[in-house]
Amino acid sequence: MWFGNPDWSRTHEPASQTSTVVTSLVEGGATCTGRTVVDDMTFGISGEQIHFDTPTNPAAPARMPGGSSSGAAVAVAANFVDFSLGTDAVGGVRVPAAYCGVLGFRPSHGTVSHTGIIPVSASLDTVGWFARDPSILRRVGHVLLQVPFAAQRNPRNVVIADDCFQLLKSPGDRVSQAVTKAVEKLFGRQILRHENLEAYLNSKVPSLKLFADKKFNGERKSSSTNLLAFAVHMLRRHEFKQNHLEWINAAKPNLDPVISSQMQGALEITDTNIDSCHAIRNEMRSALNDLLKDDGILVIPTVAEPPPKTGAKEIQSEDYQIRSCSFSSIASMSGGCQVCVPVGFHDKCPISVSFVARQGGDRFLLDTIQTMYADLQEQAELATKTSASGNALSKETSAEIAKEKGNQAFKEKQWQKAIGFYTEAIKLNGNSATYFSNRAAAHLEMGNFLQAEADSSKAIDLDKKNVKAYLRRGTAREMLGYYKEAIEDFRYALVLEPTNKRASLSADRLKKLFP
Predict the structure, then answer these.
(1) 338, 331 in Cβ contact below 8 A?
(2) What are the two backbone dihedrals, phi and then psi, of residue 214, each rounded to the nearest 5 degrees?
(3) Rounded to the nearest 10 degrees, how much is the dihedral formed by the CA atoms of 171, 175, 177, 181?
(4) Is 422 helix (H, G, I), strand (E, B) or coil?
(5) d(CA 133, CA 83)
(6) Rounded Cα gap, residues 114 and 68, in angstroms
(7) Measuring CA to CA, how many Å separate 242 from each of 236, 238, 268, 306?
(8) Which intervals of the chain are annotated as region Disordered (predicted)?
(9) Strands 349-357 and 337-346
(10) What SS3 string covers 51-117?
(11) Beta carbons of 95 and 72 less than 8 angstroms apart
């Protein structure tokens, strides 16, 4: 029992029994090969260890491995073991998994036993695990979760948080495109949704506004994920203080400066602050449940930035702590489960994507990753090659993404939003008849008949056989009073597609009215 700090070992008796999770795994057939390094009192997020050597990140040796479960992630990434265990309150498994390029799973809060685990923050603590192989990740989960057998369910709702991927310093479009293609291939396009998570959280988690005056990087920024991370850190500091401040004051241990500065801040936390954190947690749980339902998955980045360079001073700052956990705070505060999946490299650093399910959706999430993993890796590799093949192709891919967002907005009857996305697609690739024709459909819904006619005409110029463009121009011309021209459009649509009932009915109706 050393808790990442030699003074803890010096002042505590060795553990008298094995933790429940280790016992369960050994009884399930696993072999325990050793213990791994953690951050000081498992409180850090960078992986730096001031008392012992910081584990070397096998995926990026000049970069930090991430914490608090740094050694466990490194052991899997270095192929020393098939899987390893770690603890995760604010990102202790997910961040090192992202930094080291391995799979990392944080279960729903309360689903895996904490017996025999030294608490850091009881309302956030979970026991998670790392693996390179999704089948092993899943097998470990089945042992630890101890849930009854159930038929595997496919997701019926996959929500991609577009605004989160746009914040990345790595190629977010490449990652979200790989997920989109994999989901379409396996489950169909109809289950995909694109969401602005910032706007969603602002509307569904109003208590975040209680921390809106906080500053990050010296600036006042009301990003909902940053505010959420701030609340998570405040709650963790408060509960860590309750658990360990008495020992810190009595033993006066040599502590990592991160802990010392965080404890100073913990002394200033008020009961009102903690009440606000609890309100945010309740609202977050409801928000995630409403967004995902039983068979839904939220797709987000795991981390906002690549791992810091070894020895970087930034890792001591509160800004870094907040930024590192901005996305992981979603599952931490809602109590949901999350899996980090590696999807290649960018600038010699691993990049990853995370999938989040509501609390209790652990088996569903592990099963889904098992199903998606191979296709996701294939699509990520294709996206990398596409990105490397030139800017023109990249623009075409971005245009397709914008079109899909427009289609989603159109389906949700958000006509103006759809027009915006189709316009973005046209700016990126002005040679697609589909983009103009789709924008014409949205303009028709808005009653913008002149714009609809112009877009339809442009679509026809680009593709003389675009039936939908003729139908939409005919409709626009009818509404503008150009009946003869409208009849011609409907008739031409029938020439291209003789069985088209809409064209036939419209042409017949207008001929009767205007013979």
Answers:
(1) yes
(2) -70, 150
(3) 160
(4) helix
(5) 9
(6) 17
(7) 10, 6, 13, 33
(8) 1-20
(9) antiparallel
(10) CCCCCCCCCCCCECCCCCCHHHHHHHHCCCCCEEEEEECCCCCHHHHHHHCCEEEECCCCCCCCCCC
(11) no
The two tokens of residue 419 are 């027009």
pTM as predicted: 0.79
Beta bridge partners, 265, equal none
Q: Taking a C-beta distance cutoff of 8 angstroms, is the pair 11, 251 a contact?
A: yes
41: which DSSP letter? G
DSSP conformational letter for 208: G
pLDDT digits (tens, 9 = 90+) for 159-201: 999 999 988 877 888 899 999 999 999 999 899 999 999 999 9
427: tokens are 């700016």
Residue 412 DSSP class? T
Burial of 52 (0-12, 13-18, 19+ CB in 10 A): middle
3-state class (DSSP) for residue 356? strand
Asked if 230 and 214 count as a contact pair (C-beta separation under 8 A), the reply is: yes
- d(Cα 158, Cα 455) in Å, to the nearest integer? 31
- Provide the terminal-to-terminal Cα distance of the chain, rounded to the nearest Å: 92
**Which helix (H) or strand (E) covers residue 263, if one does?**
helix 257-266
More confident residue, 61 or 382: 61
Under DSSP, is residue 434 helix (H, G, I), strand (E, B) or coil? helix
Distance of CA 499 to the CA centre of its chain: 44
CA distance 428 to 435: 11
Residue 165 CB partners (closer than 8 Å, separation 6+): 172, 173, 175, 176, 300, 301
> Do 241 and 266 contact (CB within 8 A), yes or no?
yes
Q: Which of 31, 140, 134, 15 is nearest to 86 (CA)?
A: 140
Lowest mean pLDDT among 76-90, 97-111, 262-276: 262-276
Report the C-alpha gap between 477 and 433 in whole angstroms. Answer: 19
Are 317 and 342 in contact, with CB atoms under 8 Å apart? no
Query: Do the Cβ atoms of 234 and 281 come closer than 8 Å?
Result: no
Q: What whole-number percentage of the chain has pLDDT above 90?
A: 75
**How far apart, in whole angstroms, are the C-alpha atoms of residue 302 and residue 351?**
9
- Give me 148's structure tokens: 């009854």
